[in-house]
Q: What sequence folds into this?
């Protein structure tokens, strides 16, 4: 039986911080998804401002899209955390990529003039995303994932 996981050094504070901040991000994402369902009419009203009433274009279904996006991103974020905790550098870069995509999507959503509550959630989430990126790119996190933890033990 291989005991390499037992031989891993404790993760640095920056890695533990990433784990907690990603969990907070997942909770915030759940809250925004629920908010999307509750404020569906306000979202449709904000969307319809730029579209004439006699247009053949139907308002988008925001709720199913929000739920699917949440499930996919939350699932990916949470699946990658154990790999980061076991010093896989690819998991770190995958998390960086996901958070960058979340930031880009958040900024892009602000360009559509959503209701004020969504603007507040988006603006409040940006420092959280910045903190996650900082912790992921911190030198202690880099040193942890670059250390030779996965080398076979010498006899």
A:
């Amino acid at each position: 039986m291989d005991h390499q996981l037992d031989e891993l050094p404790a993760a640095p504070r920056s890695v533990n911080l990433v784990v907690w901040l990603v969990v907070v991000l997942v909770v915030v994402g759940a809250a925004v998804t629920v908010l999307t369902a509750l404020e569906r009419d306000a979202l449709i009203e904000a969307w319809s401002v730029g579209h004439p009433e006699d247009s053949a274009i139907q308002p988008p279904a925001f709720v199913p899209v929000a739920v699917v996006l949440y499930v996919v991103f939350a699932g990916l974020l949470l699946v990658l955390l154990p790999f980061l905790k076991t010093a896989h550098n690819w998991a770190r870069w995958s998390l960086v990529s996901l958070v960058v995509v979340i930031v880009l999507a958040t900024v892009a959503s602000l360009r559509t003039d959503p209701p004020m509550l969504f603007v507040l959630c988006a603006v409040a989430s940006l420092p959280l995303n910045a903190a996650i990126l900082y912790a992921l790119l911190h030198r202690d996190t880099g040193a942890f994932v670059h250390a030779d933890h996965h080398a076979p033990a010498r006899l």
Observations:
- Residues 13-38 form the longest helix (26 residues).
- DSSP finds six helices and no strands in the chain.
- The mean pLDDT is 88.
